TrEMBL record:
This is Pentatricopeptide repeat-containing protein-mitochondrial domain-containing protein. The keyword Transmembrane helix does not apply. Residues 170-281 form the Pentatricopeptide repeat-containing protein-mitochondrial domain. Residues 1-45 are annotated as: Disordered. Keywords: Repeat, Transit peptide. It holds the Pfam family TPR_24. PPR repeats lie at residues 186-220, 256-290, 291-325, 326-360, 361-395, 432-466, 467-501, 532-566. It comes from the Eukaryota.
Length: 582
């Protein structure tokens, strides 16, 4: 068995140089007793002698100096004997004059002779293994050390410490040296080294350690978690799913819920909710109970992928399992339910959040208020608003938008204008286009064209970019109030400011002009408008209803000449008034 030296920092690669006064041993190596000089006392000489060891290996004298193991390569079996002996320095007899000879002589190093026997064979095997692996190793070809310590537990603890400190090369050399010496690291030590390689992104070395553990039957759930994470990062989540199937076939008893959580996480990041659902079902089929992390991953993935039903199912299963949901899970469920219009379930979840002592954020309040407003529950929406303010939170633009929308959907348009006025007075910095547009919608419904013009002027004065939607609401208010000339002025103002009118703009201003008997203006607008069937159909309907049949026929003829198709109502009007010559 190879001799082992505790605390060697180099491999046996330094030979002793020749010394002019040295004597030769029987094998031709020049050796001298240790001498620290005449002036040194015996204690110093003995201490220095203890730090130097002379080794005879295959006819050469080499020196190992203090404190680290000497080196072997990864795949050495550790069973081949090497001719190594120790010459104790203090056993060498003194010379006749009572003084020791000077220290060891050095010879020039002969590189070809440094690595031979099992060391050379191990290095060749490691190089061949690295080539076959096909991917770059973190540490390359590591050195092997002759280990004096034979306690596997102590060496495993040393390996754990090196791995946790991210000392990759030292940890790899110790791991390979233990294998070469016939020593087996513990499963904990192997997992630490595996985690170190995964952290550093060294996939080839991680797979090498994992295959060793699998071959020795040492792989644990933690091992599978680490290697699956590495495979997903390097080769994608489909490769991780395939490896999980293989692991379940070979070692199902060590596949725990944490392994499943790892694969669920990588599939969730890829937004593959179908694979996440499949893994969730397999978890139950294998009689494994989900953890808080499991349900956190499930709810988060399903909500992000728009699968609210699955998110609620996972949430309810968590309660049946006796697991209290985290704040993130409750927020995700509320967001999903409010988005799908399930405001009752959202309120129930909100109450559970409050009873658990959690403080909802402004985003949670806004989502519930918005959902209640869409459902026409304006009173509940304002209760939530008062709860928001009593919680010490300040309403933002989204809060006011949700409240204004709740009032508008409930038909309380005057209340919308009153609330908007209050916002303008107390929170004018929060006013934006969306809030103005909700107020303008109320003006349109009420026919409050003067109020609409005032809001439009405030928007211009405030430097807001006015869109076609805002102008359309004001023109619509003029149409409701039968103020065609005002509507036409707003339309001209709109085009003058460089805002392009859309189809809704043209329809609204044309209807206003028709009911105001502004026939010339109607024809002028038709000349400006790009060919559009809906616009021409609206003009013909209005003209026929106002009894302007001749003008309606003129517009209808033009419509057909430019290739536009009339709708059924337009044809009906034309057939009804076919014989009329008015």
């Amino acid at each position: 068995m190879a001799a082992v030296w505790s605390g060697c920092s180099t491999s046996f690669s330094q030979e002793l140089p020749p010394h002019p006064r040295g004597r030769r041993g029987g094998d031709g190596a020049r050796i001298h007793p240790w001498s620290g000089g005449a002036g040194r006392d015996a204690t110093t000489r003995h201490a220095e002698a203890a730090r130097t060891v002379v080794v005879f290996a295959r006819g050469r004298v080499r020196v190992c100096r203090a404190a680290a193991p000497c080196v072997l390569e990864p795949d050495v079996a550790g069973k081949e004997e090497v001719g190594v002996a120790v010459w104790g320095m203090d056993d060498e007899p003194p010379v006749a004059d009572g003084h020791r000879r000077h220290g060891l002589r050095r010879r020039p190093v002969r590189p070809a002779a440094v690595e031979e026997g099992p060391v050379a064979a191990a290095r060749s095997a490691a190089s061949a293994s690295a080539s076959a692996a096909g991917s770059k190793s973190e540490v390359g070809g590591s050195r092997l050390h002759f280990l004096e310590e034979r306690d596997e537990e102590m060496l495993s603890r040393r390996l754990i410490k090196l791995s946790q400190s991210n000392k990759v090369r030292s940890a790899t050399e110790l791991f390979d040296s233990m294998r070469a010496s016939g020593l087996q690291p513990s499963a904990h030590a192997c997992n630490s080294l595996l985690a170190c390689f995964v952290r550093r992104g060294s996939f080839a070395d991680a797979m090498k350690v994992f295959e060793f553990m699998k071959g020795k039957g040492m792989a644990t759930g933690h091992s599978y978690t680490l290697i699956l994470k590495a495979v997903a990062t390097t080769e994608g989540y489909f490769a991780a799913l395939k490896m999980l199937d293989e692991i379940e076939e070979s070692d199902k008893k060590n596949v725990d819920v944490i392994v499943y959580n790892t694969v669920i996480s990588v599939c969730g990041r890829a937004k593959d909710w179908r694979q996440v659902e499949r893994l969730w079902r397999r978890l139950g089929e294998n009689s494994l109970s989900g953890t808080l992390m499991t349900y956190d991953l499930l709810v988060s993935t399903f909500v992000q992928c728009g699968q609210s039903e699955l998110a609620v199912d996972a949430y309810q299963e968590m309660f049946k399992s006796g697991i209290d949901p985290s704040e993130d899970i409750l927020k995700a469920i509320i967001a999903s339910c409010t988005k799908e219009g399930k405001w009752k379930f959202a309120l129930t979840t909100f109450r559970r959040m409050l009873s658990a002592g959690m403080k909802p954020s402004i985003i949670v309040f806004n989502s519930i208020i918005n959902s209640l407003g869409k459902a026409g529950e304006d009173e509940l929406a304002f209760r939530m608003y008062h709860l928001l303010t009593s919680s010490g939170l300040k309403p933002d633009q989204y809060t006011w938008s949700a409240l204004l929308s709740a009032l508008y959907r409930s038909g309380r348009c005057w209340d919308v204008l009153d609330l908007f006025q209050g916002i303008k007075t107390k929170h004018s910095a929060l006013l934006n286009n969306h809030l103005y547009n909700i107020a303008l919608m109320s003006c349109e419904r009420l026919g409050q064209w003067e109020h609409g013009l005032q809001l439009l002027w405030m928007m211009e004065r405030g430097g807001l970019q006015i869109s076609a939607v805002s102008y359309n609401h004001v023109i619509g208010a003029c149409e409701v109030a039968r103020m065609p000339k005002v509507a036409l002025k707003v339309y001209r103002r709109m085009t003058h400011r460089g805002c392009s009118p859309d189809t809704f703009t043209h329809l609204s201003v044309i209807r206003a002009c028709i009911w105001g008997s502004l026939w010339n203006e109607v024809e002028d607008i038709l000349e400006e408008v790009a060919p559009d069937s809906s616009v021409y159909n609206t003009v013909i309907h209005g003209l026929c209803l106002r009894g302007k049949i001749r003008l309606a026929r003129k517009v209808y003829t033009k419509m057909r000449s430019i290739g536009l198709k009339p709708d059924g109502k337009t044809r009906s009007f034309m057939l009804q008034n076919l014989a009329t010559d008015y």
